[in-house]
Every structure is written in C-alpha cells, then in structure tokens.
Amino acid sequence: MNYTDNNKKNYVLISVLIGMLMSAIDMTIVILALPTLTVDLKVPFIDTIWVILIYLLVIAALTTQFGKIGDMFGRGRIFNIGFIIFIVGSALSGAAPDIGFLIFARAVQGFGAVLLQANGNAIIADYFSQGERGRAFGITSMGWSIGAVLGILLGGIITTFIGWRYIFYINIPVGIIGSVMAIKYIGDNKKTNTKIDVPGTILLIFILSLISYGSIKIASIGVTFLNSIYIITGVLLIIPFVYIEKASNYPLMDMRVFRIRRLSLSLLASLLQAIGYLSVLFILIMYLQGIRGFSPFDASLLLVPGYLISGLLSPKMGKLSDRIAPGTVAGVGIFFMAIGLVVYLLMGISTPLYMVIIGSIITGFGGSMFWPSNTSAVMSNTPPRLYGSTSGLLRTLSNIGTLLSYVIAITVAATTVPRYVTFEVFLGVAKLNGNVSSKFIVGIHSALIVAMIVLIASSISSFATSLKFKNVDAEAVT
Fold it and tell me: CA 378: distance to chain centroid?
C-alpha cells in the first residue's frame, strides 16, 4: 500500500465521518430546541415531538433497503446523493413556515441521512482491510459521539443566541464539504444483483408508525381503546413481517444473517443498547430542566464531558478491538454504561450536580468501547457480498432501538405524573417542587432501572460473541 492509496483512504474516512457527524447531530440538536419550536410555531408539544420522531422513523424504516440500493447501484453514488438530499432537507427545515412543513422537511432530511448511514460502514469495509477496520470504525464512531456533543451544545447555543432555524442551516456548509470529498474520492463497488423488498418495507413502516403513534397518543391523552389497538396491531404485524421476510428472495432483513451466530448476537447487542441507553439523554434533560430548573444551554453543558470522553477514546478502543475479541470489548463497554445508570439512580431533588457529570463520564467511557467494537464485530462476521445489506441492517436495528427508546421515555414519563406537569417538564418551563417533583423522580428512576436491565442483556449478548460455536459462521449463509 503506497502513500497515495493511504491518502485516498484517509479522505474516504473523512467523508464518511462527516456524513455520520451530520446525521448524528440532527438526532440530538432538536431536543433542546423543542421548547422554542413549540412557542414560536404556536402548536402543542405533542405535535413538535414529531420533529424528532419523524426523523428517527424514516431512518429506522428505510436504512436496510438503502444499504441494498448501494449494493445494486454503487455505494459511492448513493452516498453522494445522500449528502445532497440531506442538505436540501436541512434548508427546507430551516425555512419551514409551520409545523406540518417542518415535519415534512425533517422526513426529507431523514431520507438523506438514510443514504449516508446505510452505506457508510460498507464503504469503510470496502476500503479498509479487516486489521484496519477497528481503527476506522473507531473514528466514524467518534463522529457519532462528537455529533451528539455538537447536537447538544449547538442546540442550546444556536437556539438561545441566534434562533432555532439555524440549527438546520448549519448543516449546509458542512454537507457541501463532505459532498465534494465524497464525489472526488469514493468510488462505486462491484454491483450485485438484488431487488428492493417493497412489501417488507411497507409493513415495517406500518409497524413502527402504529407503535410510535399509539404510544405518543397515550402520552398525550392517556390509555384508550383506540390507542391500545394501534400498539397491539403494530406488534401483531411483526408476525406476517417475519413470514414475508423468510419467503422473499430479496428480503428487507435477510434472515440468513441471523443464522450467523456471532453476527446475530452483535446485531442483538446493538438493538438492545439503543433501546436501553439512547433515551437516557432525554431523561437527563427532563431532570435537569424540569426538576432542577436549568436552562437548555446550562443543562447541555453538564452532559458534554461524557460525550467528549466517548469521542476522544473511540479510535483507541477501535484499535483495541483489532487485537482483542471485539465482542469482549463491546461487552465491557456496555457494563460500564450500566454502571453509569446506577450513578444516575442516585439523583434526587437536591443531589450534587457532579453526580450527573460522573455518570456522564462513565457512560461515555463505556460508549467509546461499545460502538466501534460492536461495529467491527458485525462487519468482521459478515460475508463480503452482504456488506451493504448488513451495514444497513445494523443501522436499522440501532435506529429502531433509538426510536423505541424515545417513545418509551416519553410514554413512561407522561404516565408517571399528571400529563400537564410532564409536558411542563419536557418544555423546561417550570421547576417542580414537593410531592409532584418526588413522584417524577420515582418515574425517572423506574425508567432508568428498565434501561439498565436492557443494557445488561446487551452486555451478555456481546460477551456471547466470543464463545466458540460448532458450525463455521461464514457457511451459514451459503
């Protein structure tokens, strides 16, 4: 490998990093802007929450399919188109005149993020050898961590001092830089003969939409027969979805992948980690703004240390997973994240704020171990011809977990105390005191305990990937 080849690989890595960075920023940047959005657009909070959920819903439902489209038409080409669509969606979001248009624009933005996320890991696998991927995935994982930090900080700073529209406009210059690099340096892979699973995609959209809509309606107006039917129907549709996927020649989720034991365990760990942890940010912001009375900007500053730790250490932990079984590194990382939640369980009405920072640092350290190592474990156990679809499946499961994580957090919080109080907490417009505050703390603790249990299950799944299995994994999909 000469200097020119290494130089090109570095530019490829930077371009993928920028794509991951932007899509990660927009998963968190809106959270701290929700109060301003709600007031400025003069709509109920239960409507503005869809500015977050529609982005997650589009990504969760479509990521796997557009990993396959990268296999079909060239990952470089599809990745480049993703940059362009994301930039357009960002511009539309910033210019939105009302909540309906903003939700539509966020869906467009989410579609661009789909193309970036679904093909990013596969592009890394195309350009980097197995011994180099841990470091490369560590750097792209750093993009997720830095994106989360920037999303939190920029959401507070820009909304407070400039205006909420610029949380979207900021993507435009960054996206242009990433797009120019991608067009110049990322080529297309060898095309494969596959097709899009239209029935499976439509069914997955219905499943996630029904569960999300029913849950948010419960948070809004309480448990009703109709809201329960939405959720039950969404869950029951999983049965025909699995049947369709098994029967399809070109499934949305290739069930053969789940016959590769180490791969399926790593994918399961990713799903459980997302369900168990990614709502914790939302829970902490509710605690800091609603219980402790902090402004969005001040609340964001307390959460930055953990994300910085995660971002700085991810490349080193990725390199560690090149030398040690990546499943073991990922399992230890999840264990640290669970310990961080134990620290958060000590939070009360007047707990010293350094406890929040300590918990953030511990979970950030764990995240730096898990994300690059788990990604390396997934791609290392994937046959090359399935790089694109598996990369998309990994992001799909992670995004489904993220979507469910937010939905569960909102629903649990809204059923713990009177809904009007919960929405005041969400919006950060009131500092709670007395019995209501104590009850809300109990609700937060309950959500954290559930999250910790899910994380422990994820850790066990990661450790299990280091076990020796009787069959050769690669032969399971032939």
Answer: 16
Q: Determine whether 380 is exposed, middle or buried from the number of CB atoms within 10 Å of its CB (0-12, 13-18, 19+).
A: buried
Q: In what helix (H) or strand (E) does residue 189 lie, and over which residues does it extend? A: none
Tokens read off for 5? 């080849």
Helices (H), 74-170: 75-94, 99-127, 130-161, 166-169
CA distances from 74 to 111, 434, 461, 465 (A): 17, 59, 33, 31
Residue in 84, 88, 94 with CA at minimum distance from that of residue 33: 94
Q: How far is it, in rounded angstroms, from Cα 230 to Cα 187?
A: 44
Give the chain's radius of gyration (CA, Å).
21
Distance CA 306, CA 36 (A): 26
| Rounded Cα gap, residues 434 and 428, in angstroms | 17
Dist CA 275 CA 297 (whole Å): 26
Q: What is the DSSP letter of 164?
A: T
Region of 186 please: left (phi>0), alpha (psi -120 to 50) or beta: beta
8 A C-beta contact, residue 186 and residue 15: yes
Structure token digits, residue 374: 């788990």
Other beta carbons within 10 Å of 221: 13
Per residue in 264-310, pLDDT (tens digit) is 898 999 899 988 887 787 788 778 876 777 776 777 788 778 877 87
pLDDT-based confidence at residue 472 (cuts at 50, 70, 90): very low
Summarize pLDDT for 193-229 with one digit per residue, the tens: 667 788 888 898 899 889 888 887 877 777 788 888 9
Which residues, other chains included, contact 313 with Cβ-Cβ below 8 Å and sequence gap of 6+?
365, 368, 369
- CA separation for the pair 272, 70 (Å, rounded): 26
Q: Which two tokens stand for residue 336?
A: 């640290």
Q: Look at the block and give the residue holding tokens 């539509």.
A: 104
User: How far is the C-alpha of 112 from the C-alpha of 175, rounded, in Å?
Assistant: 11
